[in-house]
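job 3f2a | input accepted
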Amino acid sequence: MPLVYRELHRIARNHWNRQPEGHTLQPTALIHEAFLKLVGAPGSPGDEAGTARRVYKDRSHFFAVASMAMRHILVNHAETRLAGKRGGDQARVSMEHADKASRDGAMELLALHEALKGLEALDARKARVVELRFFGGLSIEETAEALAISTVTVTRDWQAARAWLGREIGVGAAGAGG
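job 3f2a | predicted structure (178 res):
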């Protein structure tokens, strides 16, 4: 864990920075939940079969899967919040603005998630590029290494995917990040 923690924290901070104000899942908790999924601890979230360890091709593959795990954890958290669990549907007295911002952000995250699922159905590689670049904060070079493709292909896929997602969820929604 100490060998990969710094990089996992960087990825978690990237995810965290894209969350709405008032989001309650802290980067450290996100790392811990994702790590349980990544190591395949029996009984951990995502380990319905009760299996043990998972195998990763290399370091890049591990971090790519970590970023995807974090995104899925955040999407599940947003769905839970919008469903009214954990007190999400109770009236707020002093935090009304933060609660509205959090709900709006959760809806935006879910809209992006749904659009990304649509993109994945059309072109899985472009969807992976978005996950790694937008959610994981990986550079073009790191993304190319993780997907075993050229940097030119990553750049082309990134531009095409951003344009497609922009049409699906609104012009400004997919424009973040270079």
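job 3f2a | Residues 43 and 49 are 8 Å apart (CA to CA).
job 3f2a | closed
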